[in-house]
Amino acid sequence: MPLLKTPLNAVHRALGAKMVDFGGWDMPVEYQGVLDEHSAVRERAGLFDVSHMGELEVRGPQALDLVQHLTVNDASKLKPGQAQYSALLYGHGGFVDDILVHKVADEHYFLCVNASNQDKDYQHLAAHNRFDASVENAGPRYAQLAVQGPLATGVVQKLTDIHLTPIKRYHFVDGHFSGAPARIARTGYTGEDGWEIYIAPQFAERLWKEILAAGADAGILPCGLGARNTLRLESAMPLYGHEIHASITPWEAGLDWIVKLDKGDFLGREALVKQKQRGLTRKLAGFEVQGRGIARDGYEILKNGVGSGWVTSAGVIRGGPAPALNKNIGMGFLPVPLSEAGHAIEISVRGRGVEAVTVPMPFYKRAR
Amino acid sequence: MYPENYRYTKEHEWVHVENGVGTIGITDHAQHELGDIVYVELPKIGTHVEQAKNFAVVESVKAASEIFAPVSGEVIAANDALTATPELLNSDAHGAGWIAKIKLSVPEEIDRLLSPTDYQAYLGEG
Description:
heterodimer; A: alpha+beta; Gyrase A, domain 2; Alpha-Beta Plaits; Elongation Factor Tu (Ef-tu), domain 3; 3 domains; six-stranded mixed beta sheet; six-stranded antiparallel barrel; 20% helix; 34% strand; B: alpha+beta; CATH 2.40.50.100; six-stranded antiparallel beta sheet; 9 strands; globular
């Protein structure tokens, strides 16, 4: 099957981006370099094409009932214009996907889902839809641009009449963005303040260029999936297929805070209650490599030379302003007693045990 | 860009032979493809390496890449500067970013390597 392309594919190539196959999508991994792009978002602003992300529209008198039945968080708490991080689970308690639920109106919810999961998620919703609600796989109708970083609000404000400052984190407004109908949400996947802007695909190229021009003074950089990955890793945000998948439950992934057992029944609830009663055997932990070597996704984690777990995500980030040494951080699953911070572990790198230590997560938290 | 007196491999290593000793590194093209380089696993001095066999590892922010020896011989020096400043491979791949020096055991192997012209033609085809 040919790779899927976002409406900005030619723009990325013209910028000299390195392109990779990301879950079937031809996506930019970096433009001028992951470390610089990461720093731009932490210190200034970065622009990401995230048009590969999927969108599902749930509408109808029982739209909320369908969302409540299939997600772990309590969507009944949402007011119009509010979004929440949530997850779809199977009956056995493993993840179908992690998602953002936006309440547009009483009978309309807008779900942002992972690119490679959008068809699966749509089928999941359709298969369990015994409610008076419709589900639309709306991905092709949307492009999505993310503007992230401490200077992001100023950049986005230049292109919209909507007064952005009063919009709180995890809230959104429908309006116009440089003349294009847009959903402008104060959300993101970087651990930084920022905005995710949903628009029709035909506006993507013009708006991409306008954002870069509007952000030039702020030092905005186009950023690829490489920086998106290290930014979310540093903020300890899970990535589907790594920290979460069908064999992992929210308890194991450390996502207890999104599970609302008291909201009423939902798919997977019974399995989660049972697992909680039995107790967990493994849990997601953060680590920092101290020895010489680079941890990578999938590497085995050892304790005193004995296989004890596996690395789910790892990356290299700047340890501070140059010439500080780079840091190699990561997340992985470990037996519960080892998952607490302060345990000496080893990462098996090409057959050699490289020293590491478990550390608290997130690795980075922005100053507020 | 690609020094005249170096020889190159299709795996994007270079070797500069002087007095029977080959200085070895990765090409500018290779460092550009790898992106920000963050770690280099240097070969141990005294080990014997075989042409086209793995003898070092260069890791960028994106991935680990095995480096193949362009010539056979004994490792007589490794560039320890890369331990603290692996980014030398990005900034000066053909100079300060050299990886190791090998005392050639089969000097005629050099004839099987690419000239700068052939290497650049090879890159052009890619």
